[in-house]
Amino acid sequence: MTIENTHLQTIKELKSAILASRYRVAVLANKEMLGLYFAVGKLISEKAHQEKWGAKALEILSNDLQNELPGLRGFSASNIKKMRIFYETWEDCFTIGSLPSNQFGEAQNSENQIIVIGSMVSNQFAIEFQKVGFSHHFEISSKTKTLEERIFYIQKIASEFWSITTLRHHLKSNLFRQQGTLPNNFAKVITQDDLRAKALMAFKDEYLLDFINIEDPEEENERLIENEIVRNIKKFLLSLGTDFAFIANQYRFILDDIEYFVDLLFYNRKMQCLVAFDLKKGKFIPEYLGKMNFYLSALDEMVKLPHENPSVGIILCKEKNNKVVEFSFRDVNKAMGVSTYKTVNELPKEYKGLLPDVEILKKLMD
């Protein structure tokens, strides 16, 4: 090995050691902060109930803390309220206190240790729990209703290192409910149990494409939707989830001197296969499967590498009838699923009836 190569290897090892140390420090700091916030939340929750605190109590408390500790950050009235919510969300699963001394007989440095109580969560989950930042925790506490949901999102954040933006997107698109619900024929055509399980978890029944903003719904068509997706490819990848890599839109292949184009082509690293998306602006009809079956056969024959698994196809349409999808899949031998999409133009149910119809507004403006 040359001196230059030895030097580069030394730099690489030093960089790795520094980054690993920074990560451990960050994890320990986050663990300590969560313990403190949980303890504060516990104290505030108990005091508020015992002493019947009024609406201004937290503001007074925050101001008094600032007077005692000038320059204190992170303890505004709103943040203290979040700490209380954080505690009350998890009070049935965790408590706060000092852990027993460790195997070397040394006392723990902090009394604010989050400790598992009961059997609702495991010690392993407690480790994952303390790797997640407080901002993530508050998003989960305020936007989920069940313990199962909270555990799902925390484990995803801990294992996949989601940013707060990614978490908010998946909460908004209801990833917990969407995973594994895609109408598909995977059970019949994917024979490997592990690959079938990965495929089921990789796709959703509905995708939230809230970055698509088509002013006139009558102008909505497949190419317009495709262009919006390509223009916002990072956001679309966020909708898909982890392990997807974008290859091309209008992916071209030639068969018997005729050109064919796949709307969107991706690669999924976990499944080790190509994934083709065919975009449809209307309701699903059985004929769409024949076209997708043709695309997948061509991709497997002409594009797929020898070590890769057979391609998977997703038909992304505006709406579908699951019974029609089920019957359509019966004699199809390629792995496919049918998903729907929702765009920013769709009015939330709670607002329907409160705002005038788009067509009425158009007439008023003419």
From TrEMBL:
Keyword RNA-binding: no
Superkingdom of the organism of origin: Bacteria
Pfam family, one: DUF1016_N
PANTHER family from the UniProt entry: BLR8175 PROTEIN, UNCHARACTERIZED PROTEIN YHCG-RELATED
Entry protein name: Predicted nuclease of restriction endonuclease-like (RecB) superfamily, DUF1016 family
Keyword flag Transmembrane: no
Domain YhcG N-terminal, chain residue ranges per copy: 13-177
Gene3D superfamilies, per the entry: 3.40.1350.10
Organism the protein comes from: Flavobacterium phragmitis
